Structure formats: structure tokens, C-alpha cells
Amino acid sequence: MVPQIWLWLVLSLCVGCFSVSGDIYEDRRAYKRAVFAIETGRLREFRRLREELGDYVLKPYLDFYEARRRISSLDTSTATKLREQWKETPIEQRFFRLWLGTQARRGRWSRYLEYYEPSGDVEAQCYYLRALYRDGQREEALSQVSTLWKVGASQPKPCDPLFEAWISSGGITDEIAWERLQLALEANSVTLAKYLLRFFSSSVSRVARAFYDVHVRPSTIRNINKFSDDPYGRQAILHGLLRYARREPSKAMAMWQRYRTKYTFAGYQVQHIEENLLVELSRYGNDVAPALPRYSAEVLEVLADQTTRTRNYADLVKWIRAMPSSYRETPKWRYWYGKALIDLGDLGGEDVLNELASQRTYYGFLAALLMNSEPALNQTQLSPDSANGLALRSLPGVRRMSELYAVGDLSNARREYLYLFDGLEGKLRPTLVLFLVEMGWFDQAVVTANRAELHDLLDVRFPIPFIDTFRRHAFETSIPLPVLFAISRQESVFDPSAISPKGARGVMQLMPKTAQATADKIREKPPDLDALMDPLVNIRLGAHYLAELMTRYEANRAVAVAAYNAGPTRVDEWLRRFSGIETVAWIEQIPLHETRSYVKNVLAGCHVYSQLLGKPLPVLEAHERLVPSLRD
């Protein structure tokens, strides 16, 4: 059967399950005009449009937007009625938090205390303690402040008056200040850490400054006399050594030998620092032979990873057998254990790999490749159920979610989805998956299939949107079509509106500078930020950029995909560190966990897509078995 045809057949058999009124298009247009009217202050037009919408399912959102405009003037009675009106919708708590926050900002502390409901919202907690303080319960309020203060990031501005009162009352001690300094440095919140230096007593101030200095300039650790031999000083030393080891692991290990003879570290600190220094040494390609009193699971993994690149399979078996079962039984170590046994002539490795090959995972596909067996897809299909379709479509939350999606309000559509899913009957969750696919909300359909544990529903979990665009640019760039799909699925799950925290945009999550450079190379006009959200533009430039990487790395998908995620500069460095080894072993040596997982997921996804598209590709082809050598 043509890939994914069955899914559309299911939907066609369920015609009417998700049908809507013929007037719905006009309702959607009127709703969008009403939203625009209230956003621009045209209240008379807004109220007229609102009335014309009758019982349209999104009218509660119009009421919410109107109430939000005058939220500071809403009295308790009106706010309570509105909250009751929006009960069992995500609007209820959203409105209540806004209204309650307004009471605090207006100084209505008694009202805030009366209606406050505990939550994980830090700003709300700070307002609550300020209300307690204003109500005369000062001791009770101040006793709870340290928990809010001791975090590794700056807290919201409304917390400042509370913190000032607590500090003035003598709430900060060296121990409390040190704890927050440590948290700030661990989170790399350097500005906050520098601010915290003012809170230490004269006896601790010097070592706190040394702690800060060694974080921002790790080479400071070479000044062995900078640190005191006390609990604070020793903690600063350990932190600095590990920071220094990220760039200079061999020098950090040499410095550690000097510090160990001069300072009185506890046994657990010695174990901790030596384990972590070994990890950093290994990441730089150094062979390590630790002399520790015991091997932690983390060190055993380092030793085992080391032997995957040196092909010392006798030691690899030894290290894997020494691991706790929670590590040893993972797909990764089962694969390497089976591979090592076979290399050593132990046929028991075949049993290990044959069992692993029955699983649809990256390592399952590798095992199947090694055993020359057919990789397992374990695919299942949904059966249509018109009764469940009608039951789902009748739910107000589903109706609101689908309409919000239809009018382009993805933020509120996602709020409705999250509110809906946890309370949804288990039997309706597969039907929800089908509904999301019919809507074209592919990323949410994938999320829902995973949350509903429908892991074998491959035609949903591996969608093929924008097929003509992908097909064209796969042909144009000679990139295998499954590779483009697998990368796009991993990057954005095909969401054209996706924007990463770092600014990558669109279906293939291109950074603007990368997109502009690629456009220049293929002699096209550089796209602006809006154009990058267009799948036609994004996929074209993403395909050309990937083609450039594939050429650079001799068509080795694993290496090119790593460069797509982490950048060519890093990948070139990793190739120099680990040259001439098997690609499967090279992937295990990638220092960045994010990139290591990314490469495995894309290779596995590429294999699944190749099967679904009827163009089977092995997880690694023959020319990809070894990583390429860098050209000068």
C-alpha cells in the first residue's frame, strides 16, 4: 500500500465524525475581526461582532479579552462570577491569576490573602508573603523567604520588596549566601553571582570572590595559593578544576595532583573529582586507566566507551558486565555487548543481537544490520470508530481547541489541548490522534500518539507533510528524501511556526545567518525572518545546506547530521580527535549529549521513513561505516 494511504482511508471512512457547520467559515472570520477590534480599542465594533456570533464556541475567549481590558476595576463579585462562567476551561485559572495579581499590584493585600490559592508560581508566592507581612504576620512571612531566595536565577521583580525586608531583618547568613552563589554559578548566572558577593561577611568574602573568579576565568585554578583550605575553599577548587578540565583536561588532572597533596579533601570529594576528570579526559580522546577505590557506573561507561573506539572487545565485555543492570540492560550496552561477544567468537552475542533487532530503535536497527536480518518496524494501524468520533467532537474542549487552531491561535489551542488531554477517556485518545491528523496539526498528533502510548502508530508518529516540496528539493540536492523528513521531524515535527530559544526558525530550524549564507551560495535573495517561516523557502534552503554538509563529509549521514545540529567547526574537531574509527563508535564519542542523541534519532527516523516511503535504506550504508578523514 502507498505509504500512509491507510490513514487517509481511515479518515474517509469516518466522514462526518468531525464535521462542522456550513456557516463556520463566516463565524471564524467574524471572530478574528472581533479579536482585532478589541486589540485596537474599537469596542463598539467588538460588541457588535460579539453579538452577531451567537453561540459560537469561542465566545468565551471574547468575553475573556473584554474582561482583561478592565481587570483592575473588577470587584470580587464580578470576578467570582466570571470565574464560575469559565469553569472547566483553561480560561478559568488564567483569568483568576491575572485578577489576583492585579489585586496585589494595586495594594489590595487583604483581598489577595482572602483569595490566594497555593501554586508553583513564584511571583504569586512572593505576593502572598508580602500580603502576610502587611497583615502583621511578619515572622510567618519572613520564615518562608529563604526558600524563594535560594535559587540559581534572578527572581521576579515583585519579590524584591519581600527580599529587602528579609535582608534588613538579618535573614542572610554566609551559609545561605554561599548556597545561592553555588546555585547561580552552576546555572552560569554570572550577573547574579557577582551581585551575591556583597552579602558575605569579611571572613568568607575572599573565598567567595575566588569561587566567582575561577568560574568566569577557569585558568585562575593554576594559582594554587588563591584558595583557603576550608569547606568553602575546597568546593571552589573542585568547581574550578572541572571548569578548567572542559578545555584543558590533561592540565586540570596535573593541577589536581598538586591540590590533592596540599588540601584536605574528603574521600567522596576525591572520588567525585577524579571520576569527572576521567570523563573529561575521555571526551578529548585520551585513553584513561583509573586507579580509583571503586568504579561508579559513570566511570564504567567512560571505560566502555573508550574500548568501543579502540576495539578492545575483551575489556569492553568486562566493563559492561561490571555495570549495574540499569545500565547494562539498556539498548546501547546490549548492542555493544552482543557485538563484542561475536568479535571474540562467542556465539551468545548472536542471541543478544537477534533479540535487540526485534525492537524499533537505533540500536535495534544496528543489530539487524550486523545480523543481516530484516529490521523491525512493529507497525500498527487504527481502526475507525464513528461513535468515538462523534463523542470526541461533542466535547466543548475539543471544539474550542479545533476552532482556535482554525483561526490561527496556536497558543490558546495548545492550552485547550493540555487541559483536555489528562481528563480524556482512554478510549477517546486514539480518536483524538486521528482528529489532530485531519486538522493538519502534525506536531500535536505526534505528541498525542506518544502520550497515549501509541508508539507503533508509525503513520501518525512519522508524518509526511509538504511531500511535494520535500520531494522536489531531495531531487534537486541529491539528498535521500528520508533524510530530509527525519531531520525535519527531529527539528520541529514539521511545525512551520517553530522558533527555538536560539532563534532557529521553521520546519528545518535554520538559523538566519545560515539561511542567508546558503541563499548567497545558491545565488538567491537572502530571506528575511518572515520568509524563513515559509515551508517552501525553509525546506529549500535547509536541503541545500544539508547537501553542502554531505559533500563536506563524504556523504556520511551521521557526520553531516551531527554538523547540522552542532555546526561544522565542532564536528571537525571531533573528527580530528577520533579519526579513522567506525562511525557507530564515533557517534558514541560525540561530547555533546544533545548532538549524540540527535544523530541517533535522525538515523533511526531516516530508516523508518525509508520503509514508509518504499525506499529502504539501512541505518548506515557501506560507505558510511567509517568516519571520513578531514581534507587539508
Structural overview:
With 632 residues, the protein is mainly alpha-helical. It folds into 5 domains: 24-123; 172-283, no CATH class; 297-371, Serine Threonine Protein Phosphatase 5, Tetratricopeptide repeat (Alpha Horseshoe); 386-461, Orthogonal Bundle (Methyltransferase, Methionine Synthase (B12-binding Domains), Chain A, domain 1); 467-624, Lysozyme, CATH 1.10.530. It has 37 helices and no strands. The protein is 64% helix and 0% strand.
Explain briefly what this protein structure is:
The chain has 632 residues and is an all-alpha fold. The protein contains 37 helices and no strands.
List keywords for this structure.
632 residues, mainly alpha, Serine Threonine Protein Phosphatase 5, Tetratricopeptide repeat, 64% helix
CATH topology of the largest domain: Lysozyme
- Count of all domains: 5
Class from helix and strand fractions: mainly alpha
Indicate the proportion of strand residues.
under 5%
Number of helices: 37
CATH architecture of the largest domain: Orthogonal Bundle
Q: Give the overall silhouette.
A: globular
Pick out the low-confidence regions.
Answer: 8-21
* Major pleated sheet: none
Specify the helix fraction band.
Answer: 55-70%
What is the radius of gyration computed over CA atoms, rounded to a whole number of angstroms? Answer: 29 Å
CATH class of the largest domain: Mainly Alpha
The separation of the N and C termini measures: 48 Å
Give the integer mean of the pLDDT values: 93
